[in-house]
Write a structure and sequence with these properties.
79% helix
Length: 189
């Protein structure tokens, strides 16, 4: 039976995803990733070069999945925020992973900057406004979609309502707030 490097890479990415979600980049241990893969530690360095590069590969893979699940709709930021909210509820580890990235690597890569500028320009073009306003609207929509998972459960549901009902109400509030933002910040075309 031959060695399957693509299967090893897939196992390493899966184990690294779990490790980085739990411990962040600084707290993650290559030994644990290799053990949980299962693979040898040298495979991480052979395929990814470093723990930092492995973290980047995990982030890229998760962001690609998110982009496939939630198509970007610059002309309807409210629907985009609602779809992002749904995706984050479905995969809360993505929020945690991006929080670790923001805490441990606050600088934006050239690719991240380009992706956000492209999206902000698409928002600006769709709404007949400038890039700065498009970026403001995009960042506020992203923040609204993520806010639920940034808040401790006791705070986001202080009355102890049925969790699913509360989740649905919050989703509606995300959509309504982003819609109001869009109408307030950007003119109607």
């Amino acid at each position: 039976m031959g060695y399957d490097s693509s299967a090893t890479r897939a196992r390493l990415l899966k184990a690294a995803h779990q490790e980085f979600v739990a411990y962040g980049l600084a707290g993650a241990r290559v030994e644990r990733i290799a053990k949980n893969a299962p693979a040898n530690k040298q495979a991480i360095y052979a395929y990814y070069g470093s723990k930092d590069n492995l973290f980047d590969a995990v982030l890229e893979a998760r962001i690609r999945v998110l982009a496939d699940v939630v198509p970007f709709t610059p002309d309807d930021l409210a629907a985009y925020a609602g779809a992002l909210f749904d995706a984050f509820i479905e995969d809360p580890d993505l929020i945690r992973l991006t929080q670790w990235k923001t805490l441990e690597r606050p600088e934006a890569s050239a690719e991240e900057l380009e992706a956000h500028l492209t999206k902000a320009q698409a928002v600006a073009d769709a709404h007949g406004t400038d890039l700065e306003t498009g970026m403001d609207a995009l960042m506020i929509a992203l923040a609204a979609a993520q806010a639920w998972l940034f808040t401790p459960p006791a705070i986001r549901n202080p009355t102890g309502d049925d969790e699913e009902a509360r989740l649905n109400r919050h989703r509606a509030a995300v959509i309504a707030s982003v819609q109001a933002l869009t109408e307030r910040l950007m003119p109607t075309k």
